[in-house]
Prior knowledge:
This protein is an alpha/beta fold. The protein has six helices and five strands.
Amino acid sequence: MDRSYKIAxxxxxxxxxxxxxxxxxxxxxxAAVENFSYELIPYDLGGDRYLKTGETLPASVLEELKQVxxxxxxxxxxxxxxxxxxxxxxxxxxxxxxxxxxxLRPVKLYPGxxxxxxxxQPEDIDFVVVRENTEGLYVGTGxxxxxxxxxxxxxxxxxxxxxxxxxxxxxxxxxxxxRSKNNxxxxxxxxxxxxxxxxxxxxxxx
Length: 206
């Protein structure tokens, strides 16, 4: 056995610790089969630490994380912390500092594994997606700097107005009112990262 790895473990918040604990069992099983060893280095980054200390990702911890072979990160997001603080302070900070430019999420269905759509009939799946189609990134605001060169920069801005948001939401509510069943309206957005645009959407929605 000549392969050994240092792995930082950040259980995070909510279901994070539970999921990470199960994942570590998988890691142990894989290590036995693939014949490698590893050292786990735990970190308490997340909502609880932020509420106690006001810290998200201290510079000293970031430097330590740069030295490990892998980071095992659970869920980030705490009900007592405003959306965007932990996500920007931990997730995005790590992403940019470590240049983690790929978000890879394979999806596989394994035999015998229950899924929400298993054994469903056409009448069981009936929903409508309502999406604003003239604002946000569709307004075409932006431009180029040094176009055509190796240093080219493209800027695309998202513009959201209260009027545009409200009319889209009102349309969605009206659609729900006309449906005899499945008339629950759910707002989907990236409030934790797009903290300005979807803050407007969320406030208008409520």
